[in-house]
User: What shape does this take?
Amino acid sequence: MMNQKNKIPWWASKYPFPPDKKKPMLIRQENEIYFSYGKGNDIVTCEIFISTDNILLSAMTIPPGQSFQPPDIHTGDEMYYILKGIASVYNPETGQIIDAAVDSVVFIPANCWHLIYNFSEEDTYLCAVLEGQPWSPEAISWVEKAELKPVGYKN
Assistant: This one.
């Protein structure tokens, strides 16, 4: 699934078509790409609907008590639209936490470290829209070296 040379997934910036063959199309459930993302005990389920050279559209399910690990960083702006549950969006560089409930949108600027915790009792389900290519080889290298930091949370 990964291109071993630069460790970027085969579909990144090429789904549903390579950049030079883009055209309008209906994305059906059978066209989605499913994969797991995470590190250690924190594994989340992701669905990729679109990944072109200009945009990534995906969805993510984070089970109760889980997070996506390691922290992530992108070269473009990203938005999370919370469809179910509560997402605690954490910036490990600054310590900032934003709690977002259903129908909330969280904006994450380009080059900002982030990860999402689910401290609730139900699944958190969100839609992610990312500007530009999801990862550069440099960003993949940064993420691979990221240290996981435990977070204590008081409501």
